[in-house]
Amino acid sequence: MKHLEEAMNGKGFLQTDVPAVLSLIYWGDPNLLIALTEEVQPVVEASSCPGDLAASLRQCLKLNSVYQETLRFTASTGSAREAQTEQLLGGKKIRAHTDLIIIYREMLIDSDIFGRDSDKFAWHRFLNNNELSKGPGFEPFGGGVGQCPDRFLAQSEILSLIALAVTRFNLEVDIGSSVPNPDTKTPSLGMMGPVSGQDMLVRVTPKVS
Hints:
two-stranded antiparallel sheet, 9 helices, 39% helix, 12% strand
C-alpha cells in the first residue's frame, strides 16, 4: 500500500484524496476486487497508451459505478453563493444579499434521491441506475461556476490507477482490517479523509506473469 500511496503522491494527489481512492478497491463486497479485475484486465491488455486506457475504462460499467459511489459517499465539497432575493428556507428567512455556503454532501446522502440506503456504501448503486449520475443531486465536484474544471482529468487518472493496481498487484486486506469510516466532523473542501486511527492494512505483492 505504501508504494501505491507514493505513486499517487508523486502524481499530485492530495493527501485527503489518497485514502478515498485506495478504498475504491475494497468497499464492502468481498467479491468486488475479483469483479473489477475481470472487467478491466482485457482493457488494460488491449490498450497501447495511457490515453487509450483512460478512454476505454470509461466503458467499464462496474468500475465507473464504484468510482461514482465512492465520490458520492466521501465527497464533502461546498460552494459560496449570494442570495439574490429574500427567501424562506426550512422555516428560516434568508435575506437578499446574504452570503451562503452550500454543502453538497446533504444532497449526496439525500434518501429521496439515492434511496433509503443512501447513508450506506453500495458499489452497484450507479450500475443499477446510471441516471443518478446525471441528476442535479449528484455534484461531487461542486456545481455552477464553481464546478471543478479538472473533474474529467481526475476521473481518468483515478480509473487508470485502479485498473493498473488490480491487474499488476495482488491486493489482500490484512486479517482484522476493514474499510475506515469517513471523517464527517473535520471540514474538508474535497474528499473526506478516514477517521483518525482507523487504518486499513493491505498486503501488496507483484503478480507473476
